Target: Diadenylate cyclase
Amino acid sequence: MENLFSFYGYRFHWLNILDLAIVIFLVVQLYRLLKGSLAFNIFVGLLIIYLAYFVVQHLQMPILSTLLQSFINVGLIAIIIIFQPEIRKFLLVLGKKAPLSKDSFFTKLFLPDKFKSYKEEENIINEVITAIARMAGSRTGALIVIANTYRVKFDTASSIAIDSNINAKLLESIFCKGSPLHDGALIIVGNKILAAKVILPVSENPNLPTRIGLRHRSAVGITEHSDNLALIVSEETGAISYAQDGNLVQDVSLEELKVKMYEVMVDGY
Ligand SMILES: Nc1ncnc2c1ncn2[C@@H]1O[C@H](COP(=O)(O)OP(=O)(O)OP(=O)(O)O)[C@@H](O)[C@H]1O
Model:
């Protein structure tokens, strides 16, 4: 194959560049997926072991090499078990960027019907933002999960199935303090409110701010192993926050929240 250029004696051609670009893309996706989570520390630890293996192999230290080699062999299976939720999410992220995902150039070009449906998503965003603005103003605590492509697993015994269109007034009345449905989270899937009064898994991430309570922790929890977006209105302060990929972003403006919702619901991030 024809060389493109050479660098310190190494010859590069187009396939090398493509190879490198794919590796960079995968590493960036992996970093985005793991950053802020406990899995990130495990990932760094594993990376150090792999680097140590290459160093001792290069230095021709046979005992250490064999030891690390056998650790790495078993480690591959361990990685699949430890990172099972992250691997699932990683594949989800990749799938969303595939040529036929709703935000891709090909879909917009060849499947204009999918493009049209964004009007509906804009409408949903406006209804949710209107409700959040009013609830923030009246310091009504709220927790709304936008389950993008991944179905939320929740405790059906405690929650109430709703299956209704999304409407600002309905959202407000669900979270109104006198409502029997106000406790717990409300789940939106597609263009429907799926359920209310849902108990979510609480995040055990020790890096979260210590002063946040269970509403914020459970919002983080439900986004740790999925591509859900969780929106929070604090009952105590009226502040608006959101959780995504296991990270909590506090005190956001309505405009920032709207942009985030567009990213998730329209652009498919
Ligand atoms: N596991 C959970 N899943 C869903 N909602 C929960 C969960 N745990 C608590 N909540 C909700 O959070 C409320 C308690 O909020 P808490 O004061 O502990 O949280 P907070 O993060 O400090 O929020 P705020 O700023 O609104 O007070 C509960 O009344 C309930 O509605």
Observations:
- The CA atoms of residues 153 and 200 lie 9 Å apart.
- The chain has two domains: 4-115, 120-267.
